[in-house]
Amino acid sequence: MTRNSTPSLGSLLFFAAAFLLSAYFTFAAVQGDFGLFRRVEIQAEADALARDLDRLHQDTARMENLTRRLSDDFLDLDLLDEQARSVLGLARPDEIIID
Asked: What is the pTM of this model?
């Protein structure tokens, strides 16, 4: 009796299919629509959007402060003077204007 030391064709096909399936699922887990790389991209986009939201909150707070300072209830004379100079182009009589 002699034993055949080469594996059968069925076992080779089974291991090849198992390897291909594992390679496919590994690729999908890393590169797919819900993979690791996509998760990193989404996290980076979320961080950028959070920074934009913080900047917008700061801009809104600044505009609300300026609006409140120009309201009828609260009059900031320095801000009023600054706005009159920039918008209307006004200057005091004792100032020298250089163009």
From this structure: 0.53
